[in-house]
Structure formats: structure tokens, C-alpha cells
Design a protein that fits this description.
Strand content: 5-15%
CATH superfamily: Aldolase class I
CATH topology: TIM Barrel
Keywords: Lyase, Schiff base
Pathway: Carbohydrate degradation; 2-deoxy-D-ribose 1-phosphate degradation; D-glyceraldehyde 3-phosphate and acetaldehyde from 2-deoxy-alpha-D-ribose 1-phosphate: step 2/2
Pfam family, one: DeoC
Largest sheet: 8 strands, parallel
Helix content: 40-55%
EC number: 4.1.2.4
Structural class: alpha/beta
CATH architecture: Alpha-Beta Barrel
CATH class: Alpha Beta
Catalytic activity: 2-deoxy-D-ribose 5-phosphate = D-glyceraldehyde 3-phosphate + acetaldehyde
Radius of gyration: 19 Å
Shape: globular
Strand order of the largest sheet: 7-6-5-4-3-2-1-8
Number of domains: 1
Order of helices and strands: HHHEHEHEHEHHEHEHEHEH
Length: 315
Amino acid sequence: MPVSHTASAPEAMTDRALRAFLHGLPGVDEVGARARAQDLSTRSVKTTAKAQAIDLAISMVDLTTLEGADTPGKVRSLCAKAALPDPADRSVPHVGAVCVYPDMVSVAVAALRGTGIGVASVATAFPSGRAPLEVKLADTARAVADGATEIDMVIDRGAFLSGDYLKVYEEIGAVKETCGDAHLKVILETGELVTYDNVRRASHLAMRAGADFIKTSTGKISPAATLPVVLVMLEAVRDHRAETGRYVGVKPAGGIRTTKDAIRNLVLVNETAGPAWLTPDLFRIGASSLLNDLLMQRTRLTTGTYPGPDYYTLD
């Protein structure tokens, strides 16, 4: 079945209607969510299935550099690794996208031209989201004009937590319109949302407003992409698909550093949203250090030995 993110323009909603919808969602059984995530995290994936899972996880990585000290040279180096993660083994798949700040988009676009790898850019006053809407839209427009194919925006958590759902909804809709053909990933910053009920509400709000992906975190706040939180978000996209017919992706980011972490997330995807989500079109992993561990584990399965710790470039 072909995957489509296509969304019509967000429906104009009154504050009262939006509040009624969000608070009419079923509450999350927090104990049950933690227990379910824990149970799925113990599933054993071995041999051939593990090799397939590692390659799938590599293809889902958004290789990321979001530091104040980022330079064009660092971004070009990251892009080279994204396209050819292991120069000694060209059978390794390339990653899903490279994620950079807006002022580095043109550098990444030039470096990745012809590879088929997307360029994602954080925008909208990342990571705080504390800026006037016109600034957020200008930030987004700059990244898109420079060639970004994906925009990772952050919601105004202060507005959400104070109950101003309509402001958050309308800002997502405005950013989505500014994105044009670029996909929009909406960062909920789940570590600041306090409850699983809020994670569910924010997920549905973002999808209703036009998000193509919902993303856990900026990677700057802890806790970030915990398994119970990802479970709640996967349930939300599954339910949204059943209700509207539209697929929305999920991107956990922050704290996913090992192959075990990545495979646990893939098991969660398969068992919660379903195998249709086991594609880079619908599931991404925001990471900077994860890729090296995936490559090390892949080499271990192929050769029987681990490469040295300095075998792969440090990102």
C-alpha cells in the first residue's frame, strides 16, 4: 500500500471545539503504557532478523549536528558519512536525512546533491520555540528556500501547558503552509509535557494541524525519547490513520545511542502502529552517536569481530 502524508489545509477550529476534541481523547493508562513498553523491550531479535533490523535502522537515521560550533566543514563531513556510512562496505544503506540549522542548509544541499538523502532543518526558534510567529515563519521560509526537504519545528510548550491550544494549532498550520512541498515534523518536547495524557493531546493536535511527522524531542531536554512516550505517540498515529486515512510518521530523538535502543524502537513500531510504519517514510530516529554503534554491530555480524573504537569517524 503506498504511503501518503498528504493533508488538506487544517480545518478552522474554534478554541472551544479544539478543547473539546483534545479533552475528549481517552486517557492514557500510565502503568499499562510502561508495562507494555517494558514487555516489548525484552523481545529477542537475532541473526538474520537482527541484520535486517540494523540496516533498516541505519536507513531511518536523521544524522544530526545541532551545535553552536557547527561549521561548513563539519556539515560536509557529516553529509559524506550520511551517503557512505562505511567506505569499506558499500552495501551499507545511506541514512534517511541530515539535520542541520537553517544557515547550514545550503551547505548540506550541495554536499548531498544526487544522493537521494533528504535535508532536514530545525526551525521556529529551535529549541525553545520562544519567538513571534513572523520570526518562526521567516526561519522556516529561509530553510525551505535554501533547499530543505523537511522542517523540524518546535511547538510553544508554554502555550500548550497553559491551555492555549488554539495558538499552538494555528502556528503549526501557518508553518505547514510556509513549508510548501517540504515535510513538516512537529517537535512536542515530551520531557516538558509532564503527563502521557498531554503527549497524546499534543500528538493529535499536531496531526490535526497538518504535521507529516510528530517528533518526541529537541534532544536538549531530558527525559527525551523514552519507550512509553514513543508508544503513546505510535498509538496516536495509528488511531489518526484509522480515523482519517492519513499516515503520519513518528520520530523519536534524544537518548537513542545503541543498536539495542534502535531495535527496541523498531519492535515497538511493529507491534503498536504496524509494519506499514517500518519505513523511513514513516519512522525516523534523530541521532548523532547511534550510527557508529549500528555500524559496529553490523560489522560484528558480518565478520565475527568488532572494529576498533577509532575505526569510524566521530560525529
